[in-house]
Specification:
The chain is flat and about 70 Å long. The chain has 2 domains: 124 residues, no CATH class; 108 residues. α5 runs antiparallel to α8 and α8 packs antiparallel against α11. The chain is built from 11 helices and 10 strands. The chain is an alpha+beta fold. Strands 5-3-4-6 form a 4-stranded mixed sheet. It has a 4-stranded mixed sheet with strand order 7-10-8-9. It is 36% helix and 16% strand. β1 and β2 form a beta hairpin.
Amino acid sequence: MDELAIAAKARHRVSKAPKAIVPETALQQQLQMNPYARALATDVRQCQITGARLPRHFLLPVTTRLLPLSGDEDSAKRTPKATLDIGVEIDRSFDDQTKWRGHTYLLARQSVLHDLKRKKKWPQLSTERTHRWLASKLGVQAHAIDARKHYAWDERAPEFTFDKLRSRVFSLLDALLVQHPDLVIPVPHQMIGNDPSREEWSCLIALQAGPTLTNTTIPIFDGHDILDPDAVPETCQQVPQLAGARYVAVKKHAKTVRLQLALLKLEGYLRNQQQPG
């Protein structure tokens, strides 16, 4: 065999040298612990309804999933074949054959979901790609797929999505209180503006209703508004140092960034919300 051909065959079989591990710079470490920088650094995607192109943090992923087939033949003809599920995080599991591997995206605003419900615009969440995927599963031509006939969408999606976002915050807060209680500390109201350790705080969470703070530049998430006061994790009530706390401070740390991102997404979801029609 020609020497060039032999060399070409072996070229891609040679193991690549491992990449050198370069230590992060001080700026990179700061950006890793900055939830705003992390949010803006997510991949840009387009909202299927508004057309806005935004970092993925500001969007909700929509998954297309097959529905179980009905045993009644007449009923099966009338039943939608797939559902459009709005999630909080991207589902990266590829073993589920009933789920389309791709996602469409929706602006993470409760008002947008209420608009979908009021104006019956939810079929726009489906695309030509989801039509082709569903058609391949049903054994029909893609042009035979009708969004209103073959897809289903739960009109309670605005409320369900809010519950999912809030549950994620509670789950992350609960995990921190169990595994890293030193990163979530109670702060007396009178100490907010002059606590010597406030430079270590990334944000504050208000667990009880009270006057709005104006003497601090630290972001404050009003837990009484965006979180259900009756659904605060039991861990918060069981940790002695948090008993009766008006505020808790979340320290700047790599392990608290996910909680802060979840709080930002929940707060953004409720921003400028409209009353359901």
